[in-house]
Structure prediction request, 302 residues.
Amino acid sequence: MIKKAIFLGSKKLGLAVLETLVESNNDVEWKILCPDDLNDQRSNFIDFENFAKNHSIEIKIVNSNKDILHATSSFKPEIIFGSGYYRILSNEVLNSVPLGVYGIHNSILPKYRGGSPLVWQLINGEKIVGASLFKLEEGMDDGGIVETVKIKNDNFEIGKILNLLEKEWQRILPEIWSNFCNGNITLTEQNHKDATYCSQRNENDGEINWNNSSEYIDRFIKAQSNPYPLAFINYRNQKLKISKHEIDKRKIYGEPGQVFETNENFVVVCCKNGDGIRISEIIVDGNPIKPSKYLNSFKIRL
Prediction:
């Protein structure tokens, strides 16, 4: 029987997971540990604080494995449950609670172990995407799996995929958490031979390479759309972040990155093999504007 548990993480999905766990079993005492990620536009720390206050749960910002170990030694939980904590946990943390550390990884393990797995799935055009609840071990996302959820990807933006995953976890987690609390969890070992890996991404990786097909660039933009920092054009050392776009279905002959058409409502940029992307809104310094304010000449090459 689980009497005490620590939630480790942040972000919107993490809050939905925490709310579901807390509200599905009132007998478990919780403590919340959030990373110091207030500079991340995806941070939901204020909402975590409000939730903690409304449920009389202690919440604390942690910056290191040492901080987490201090919390486990004083609070003495049986388990740590995480979602949205992207820092590497030490073996000391993994072994600091009797039942271990469990977390949600946004891929169908063993595929896409590592960083930014959902972004990479969308960039690669995976038709089925998903997330896995698994036990964290010493290796990279290679622990036993509790449950996997799968979503059909109909060329969606990443925000919609995240919302669909969130709803699915909210649906199935109460039963899973009940099994945890009653000691009825069974782990399924991953098929390590099928493992693939992905590297962590940062905002600068969102620069568009126009020497790709329009289908690829369309996926690339959608994979990094809100709540992520957005794919962008680097024009005259300024980031023009793309917030609204679509594939131009015409056959267009031009050099990749060449501005083909510009008007008050949109700008068309040439891609590989006669493709084009129509851009109707960009974000500059946090403000949405029409792209023609910057991309206003056919002489422009991006």
In short: The CA atoms of residues 32 and 223 lie 29 Å apart. The radius of gyration is 22 Å.
